[in-house]
Amino acid sequence: MGFERITVNPTVMGGVPTLRGLRIPVATVVSMVADGMTADEVVADLPDLELPDVAEALRYAAELTRERHVALRPSA
């Protein structure tokens, strides 16, 4: 799976993944959606973004969870 809209540049936002080289971290977009915003609301709030940016940020986050184990509390 390739990511054409996700960029990493050590001189932009300290090298964290951003969208299209903008100073908008993928984590910010994913957090906004996780907090209940729709993709349209995210784009309205961050007008430099496009709807495909939001979709790719979510796909990127999903791929990261496949590649890395995050410690969770055991289920009851």
Automatic annotation (TrEMBL):
Q: Which SUPFAM superfamilies match?
A: Homeodomain-like
Q: What is this protein called?
A: DUF433 domain-containing protein
